[in-house]
Specification:
The complex is a heterodimer.
Chain A: H1 2-13, H2 15-49, E1 55-59, H3 63-71, H4 83-91, E2 95-107, E3 110-115, H5 118-122, E4 124-126, E5 129-130, E6 146-149, H6 151-157, E7 164-165, E8 168-169, E9 183-188, E10 200-203, H7 204-208, E11 223-228, H8 231-244, E12 248-251, H9 254-307, H10 312-353, H11 365-380, H12 382-389, H13 393-396
Parallel strand pairs in A: 3-10, 6-9
Antiparallel strand pairs in A: 1-11, 1-12, 2-3, 2-8, 2-11, 4-5, 6-10, 7-9
Helix pairs in contact in A: 1-10, 2-9, 2-10, 2-11, 3-9, 9-10, 9-11, 9-12, 10-11, 10-12
Chain B: E1 2-14, E2 20-32, E3 36-40, H1 47-55, E4 62-67, E5 70-71, H2 77-86, E6 88-91, H3 103-112, H4 119-128, H5 144-156, E7 162-166, H6 174-191, E8 194-199, H7 202-205, E9 210-213, H8 214-217, H9 219-222
Parallel strand pairs in B: 3-8, 3-9, 6-7, 7-8
Antiparallel strand pairs in B: 1-2, 1-4, 4-5
Classes of the chains: A alpha+beta, B alpha/beta.
Chain lengths: 401, 227
């Protein structure tokens, strides 16, 4: 009780430095937790998006680019696949399901992807989860200028069944390159928290035959999404397309391909982590400096406490507790900062990729990092505590008579 | 049996120019339980050092201080802290109240290092010294006379066997000084505490039946030492 009273009053007496120091620790804690959780959740969530598919077949090129383009609707398509190649693959007994997609157009910056209706009826949006429409809609019909719109696009652009739109050519929005073809929206997808939410889906033939597209490649597709019957099938097709063939790329297994993405971004994670650690060290230094500097003004108070019978260990403990309390206060703020950072990052990632991070999801780092920083804060209090421990009593009491 | 017994107590300090300066050299001094003694001495005769030695705030170079049956020299620092918290009440000339704490908290804090904080007793003592309506005031919000009364309440809070008062009226005007002195004497008498008060003020000294001169007790001051 005495210690808590001493600490509480000391913190109040040095309110400004307490708040500034706690804020710097909050920044360190918030940053550290955010970096960690974004890294972990992003990896898990991105990898989880591939769960509905086992592989992607595309033009010869980088597997990562192919996967990002076909599954995450990012990057440019590495090239086209002849429709015959899609037919050959889909008739392969190792393949459970093959769905072609075609890209190349957008609507106000959101991608338009051509595909077949059985993407929605036979495939899964995410593992164990079917595509579903918001009440009142229906799937588009192949051969018609109809579209099904992802939930995110519908929400952002205010689209609903019955609305029409005219696509723009290319993957990036250019108002001068609008097609003449007009599409009617027949349905809006329920949110799936997958990249599909950010796409306007139209019939494959619609995209292939869009006015202004090259007639020579009208029957080509951009990629084929593949569900395999077994892992052995993946090895067989990997051998067939990647090792024996030289025209196409078979991206499999998807987890390994996506791991390259995170390996490439690993340096960025490390830089952010390093920044967070540095901020934590600076913050710990500021705890040390703040308390150490305040000791000059508190020498007399400490001497009075000792004269009243406080032990050296009590004085020592009160300083350590004060440092830990500043850190603990910082960690309360850090959780708030974490929620803000992760909320903002999640919004950006969702807007850019359709992948949804959950700022409120449990992660051990949300406890471990604050605890570690409280310990660090307490350690930062050791030097001032040693100084306070050695504070001579007689010299710092009232002037001698 | 004496509450406080001092034998051949010596304390010296090293001056900045390296000389050894004897400050306290008291061959003998006794104080019985409940006894009120005034110790006189002009500035620089080592009065504060003498009290600090008795309180265990400073350690003597040689000699023996026996307080409440305990030889202070044989106690660890923690043991001396314990004695200071439980057996001694200290009143300082400059009050030495903790500025960040209210009157009540200053008294409670003094108690917490001893037998434990007792809010009822703390309030009762502050009431006794006339500060019933100042419990939640901070020292800076009080007059000097009121601050000294808080210091007196704090010193007496743990029912100490010995109260050390170092020029307790030195910073007060004559009216407040007389009040404070009377209060200290009354409270010590009520609690059965012995009082060792040092002062250079003849009017203060006159109030005590037993008066000692530190200048006479202290051989160091006669040799030209003393602080």
């Amino acid at each position: 009780m005495t210690l808590l009273l001493l600490v509480r009053r000391s913190l109040r007496q040095h309110l400004l430095s307490t708040v500034v120091t706690a804020l710097s620790l909050a920044m360190a804690g918030g940053l550290l937790m955010s970096v960690w959780v974004v890294k972990r959740q992003a990896r898990a969530t991105f990898t989880g998006q591939t769960g509905a598919w086992d592989a992607v077949l595309g033009a010869r090129g980088a597997k990562l680019q192919l996967v990002l383009n076909a599954l995450f609707h990012l990057e440019a398509s590495p090239g086209n696949v002849a429709f015959a190649d899609f037919q050959t693959l889909s008739s392969n007994r190792a393949v459970a399901l093959a769905i072609p997609i075609a890209v190349g157009d957008n609507y106000l910056g959101y991608r338009i992807v051509g595909t077949l209706t059985n993407l929605f009826t036979e495939a899964e949006a995410a593992p164990g989860r079917r595509f579903r429409l918001v009440g009142g809609g229906r799937w588009f019909e192949d051969g018609y200028r109809e579209a099904v719109v992802g939930s995110f696009v519908a929400q952002r652009l205010g689209l609903k069944p019955g609305d029409t739109f005219k696509p723009y050519h290319g993957l990036n929005f250019n108002p001068k390159e609008q097609h003449e073809d007009e599409y009617v929206i027949t349905g809006v997808l329920e949110p799936s928290n997958t990249p599909a939410d950010r796409v306007l889906w139209i019939p494959l033939a619609g995209l292939q035959n869009m006015s202004g597209h090259a007639a020579a490649t009208a029957s080509d597709v951009s990629a084929v999404l593949v569900k395999l019957r077994s892992a052995v099938a993946g090895q067989q097709l990997d051998m067939l397309y990647n090792k024996q063939g030289d025209r196409l790329t078979f991206a499999w297994p998807l987890g390994t391909v996506l791991a390259q993405l995170f390996d490439k971004m690993g340096w960025f994670d490390q830089v952010l982590e390093l920044v967070a650690y540095l901020v934590a060290l600076v913050a710990a230094g500021s705890v040390l400096a703040s308390i150490y500097n305040s000791l000059s003004a508190r020498r007399r108070d400490l001497a009075i406490l000792r004269a009243l019978g406080a032990r050296r260990s009590t004085v020592f403990a009160s300083i350590i507790l004060e440092a830990a309390s500043i850190a603990a206060l910082g960690m309360v703020l850090a959780w708030g900062l974490y929620a803000v950072i992760l909320g903002a990052v999640a919004a950006v990632i969702r807007a850019q990729t359709g992948v949804v991070l959950d700022p409120w999801a449990w992660d051990p780092v949300l406890v471990i990092a604050p605890l570690a920083l409280v310990v660090l804060g307490a350690l930062a209090g050791v030097l001032p505590a040693i100084k306070a421990y050695g504070n001579p009593v007689a010299e710092n009491l009232a002037p001698e008579s | 049996m004496a509450l406080l017994e001092i034998e051949n107590l010596r304390k010296s300090f090293r001056t900045p120019d390296g000389r050894i300066l004897p400050v306290v050299d008291v061959p003998g001094f006794r104080l019985n339980a409940g006894e009120l003694v005034a110790l006189s001495g002009p500035s620089g005769t080592g009065k504060t050092t003498f009290l600090h030695l008795i309180a265990g705030i400073l350690a003597g170079d040689s000699g023996r201080i026996t307080l409440d049956g305990q030889d202070m020299a044989t106690l660890s620092e923690a043991g001396r802290d314990r004695i200071r918290a439980r057996v001694i009440g200290y009143i300082f000339q400059t009050f030495n109240l903790l500025q960040g704490f209210t009157c009540l908290e200053n008294v409670l804090l003094g108690m917490s290092f001893g037998p434990g904080a007792d809010p009822v007793r703390a309030r009762s003592l502050l009431n006794r010294v006339g500060l019933r309506d100042r419990l939640d005031y901070y020292p800076r919000q009080l007059s000097t006379g009121q601050q000294q009364r808080v210091a007196v309440a704090r010193a007496l809070a743990n029912r100490p066997k010995l109260v050390l008062a170092d020029e307790p009226t030195g910073n007060l005007d004559p009216a407040n000084a007389a009040q404070a002195l009377a209060l200290i004497r009354e409270l010590c008498a009520e609690e059965g505490s012995a009082l060792l008060l040092v002062s250079h003020d003849p009017s203060v000294l006159a109030a005590f039946p037993r008066r000692e001169s530190l200048a006479i007790l202290n051989q160091a001051s006669r040799k030209g030492g003393g602080l």
